[in-house]
Amino acid sequence: MSSGPCKRFFTAFAYVGLALAVTWGVLAHPYEAKRSLADNGGELPPIRGFSMQISDPEHLDAYKRAMVTLERYGVRWLNIVFQAHMKHITSNRIYWNKTLLPSPAKMVNLLLYARKHHFHTMVMPIFLIDNAVGDEWRGAIKPGNWNTWFASYRRYIKMCARAAQQGHAAMFSVGSELLTTEKFENQWLRIVHDARERFHGKLTYSANWDHYQYVRIWNKLDYIGMNAYYQLARHPGYSVEHIERAWQPVKHQVLQFAKQHHKPMFFTEIGWDNLQNTIMAPWDYIGTGPMDPNEQRRAYEAFAGVWRGISPKLFAGAFIWEWVPGAKPGEYGSYSLQGQPALPVVLHWVAGSSKPPTNNP
């Protein structure tokens, strides 16, 4: 969802010489952390965790406190989402600075802190559109010069991949929801090569749920990644059983796709906000209408019920969108689960319980 499901809204510049070494260089860190299983080419444990979007790089302590909370809840996977920016969907470059994106040193510090607290991490770099109009988002970019844009994007990916390696991440996503770019296969092969040179763990790409069949680089990646903001209801009030039935054709289709490509798939993002229409339009992060946390709970109960008992060689798991540090219970339109009735359901799922708690109203 990355700043809102499927509508996440970088003039990239490079630092050279001493400025790079001092300002954006990777410094020594105080954390002693175990290396990820992926560092040694090992198999990853089932992915059951939360996404955490780093939107305030000047206050990383808040994210560290949130990690401590999630560790206490038994969570062992985090999707760390870093975000750069692009001024317009027609811009030729992405850009970042220290107020928008943590320096590589700070990225590594945050990732090592997560390892210290027993998390496996995925790093997912995204970018947001500053001046989006109407339905514009990063899946619809159309730069005037694609070669210049891809050169800019590769710089961003190489920087984040280095940080992911030094921060002992288990997995790295080379992109997220970049629908209009996916036809440029050779450009994407260069990006995957750049990432492999700098990061030695597992690689994926986060496809949009309605576009994963068009991605041309799955054979070069380790996991098939996709978000999952499917419409599973036509009106509020669907029962858990009804939502579970709506999942069935989706489940069949994506698992068949994984079988055909001989690699596991997982949901890089899945989530519902606390509004009444969330099961009808989970991608709508600026939704309207009344709050109904029980709609959110039923959505998670159905998800946990449908996507259990599948071989991890076929379905590797999911990252819940999202956990926002400091979010308050009952915030209007929130995806973050603090204090929500859906939280116990999700924590049961995180723990690998065979059945979610049943407390339907």
Explained architecture:
By secondary structure, this protein is of the alpha/beta class. The protein has a single domain (17-350), classed as TIM Barrel (Alpha-Beta Barrel). The chain has eight helices and eight strands. The chain has helices at residues 17-23, 60-72, 104-116, 146-166, 185-198, 240-261, 293-306, 342-350, and strands at residues 47-54, 77-86, 120-129, 171-176, 202-207, 224-227, 265-270, 315-320. The chain has an eight-stranded parallel beta barrel, surrounded by five helices. It is globular, with a radius of gyration of 19 Å.
Q: How would the blueprint of this fold be written?
A:
Blueprint: H1 17-23, E1 47-54, H2 60-72, E2 77-86, H3 104-116, E3 120-129, H4 146-166, E4 171-176, H5 185-198, E5 202-207, E6 224-227, H6 240-261, E7 265-270, H7 293-306, E8 315-320, H8 342-350
Parallel strand pairs: 1-2, 1-8, 2-3, 3-4, 4-5, 5-6, 6-7, 7-8
Helix pairs in contact: 2-3, 3-4, 4-5, 6-7, 7-8
What is the fourth-level CATH superfamily? Glycosidases
Ranges with pLDDT <50 over ≥5 residues?
5-29
SS class: alpha/beta
The CATH topology is given as TIM Barrel
Q: Got a strand count? A: 8
Overall structural domain count: 1
Order of strands across the biggest sheet? 1-2-3-4-5-6-7-8
Q: Give the N-to-C terminal Cα separation.
A: 29 Å
Morphology call: globular
Major pleated sheet: 8 strands, parallel, barrel
